Amino acid sequence: MKAEFDSLLAKNTWTLVPCTPDLNVISNKWVFRIKHKVDGSVDKFKARLVARGFEQTAGVDFHETFSPVIKPCTIRLIFTLAVTNQWSIQQIDVNNAFLNGDLKQTSSGVQLFILIYVDDILLTGNDAQKISEVIHLLNQQFALKTLGEVNYFLGLEAHRSAAGLLLSQTKYIHDLLSHTHMLGCKPSPTPIATGQKLSLLDSKLFDHPSLYRSVIGTLQYLTLTRPDIAFTVNKLSQFLHQPTVNHWAVCKHLLRYLKGTMNLGVMFRPAKRMLLEAYSDADWASSLDDRKSTGGHFVLLGGNLLLWSAKKQGVVSRSSAESEYRSLADTTADLVWLQSLLKELDIKIEQSSLLWCDNMSAVAMASNPVFHARTKHIEIDIHFVRDKVLSKAIDIRYIPSEDQPADLFTKPLSSHRFQLLCAKLPLSSSVKNVSSAVT
């Protein structure tokens, strides 16, 4: 506590002002936390003095907020660049969460990327000396702790090897299974049983809805490194307000699958070609409650996973082609955003982004304006896909349904089909022994 308080004073975090009757004085509290290492041992005891911001009113007490939080997709993109170019990824920790300072330095011919998630920072680039200089300058502004090569970041375990970098959450899964008393369960080959259909009232209500919500919230964070469970987690998340016994049974089935795949994660290997490639799919009218479709897609850069999504569509589609086209639109939006990010980072891609779809009608609607007269009931903003095709930013191509890996994000699959599609994704297991990593 003393170190935290002294550091706040040294950095002039606040200014004392006279209290007047019209001021809304907000309170604060101390938050204590035990930080653990990857192996489960205690790393340090942490104290934070935090303001109780919920006592403020937006537009009255404050007008804007600042939250330096990077997207998971951006982390994966930078990891892809670092592995491809054999850059070191340095990690530093800021002792105080109150970051406010100016850092000015100009360097020509140097690529340096700084990823900030509140007070956790990653640095990488093509000049190791310049990275050291930046760390030194940051240390002059803030109290830092240099952690060396990235190893454990935001609960994500990074294992660097000659083959690439594996991002996993083994300890996170172990803690979840321990919390739910599922460490001794029998593993399941798939996250959800084949043909499993869930609905709002498929059985009696679950007696412990808070437990269900807590576990699903934990599983949602786990999808940061586990695209193979994205569909099941999304499906279970649709019943948070009123979980049933059957929903909890499916959740336990998913936990059994995690028991057998604790050390599985996303693998980043050196990219041979800087090419953006996406796969899009949809399961038409799959929801038993409202007949909305489920759309799924994922995007690769040089063969490395950048982002993935499994989500129930917002409106009811009249045909399978329409649901597929809506999924194409969502995938195109992500591709356009990634193209913009790559341009901002001065990273050139080799050609138009490839978008693979297994529905010939959807591909035809995106490529041929003759079909547009028959699809006026689809929202006009979806047709921006056509504009991207015309500008050659996106190249949509057909892929047979049996070869469509995005099928993994839209429906329950048999064990054979599930394993086949998982093999098409850049997933890998840690070479470390799971039990020794979490004892």
TrEMBL record:
InterPro entries: DNA/RNA_pol_sf, RVT_2. Pfam families: RVT_2 (PF07727). It comes from the Eukaryota. Residues 12-106, 111-193 form the Reverse transcriptase Ty1/copia-type domain. This is Reverse transcriptase Ty1/copia-type domain-containing protein. It comes from Rehmannia glutinosa.
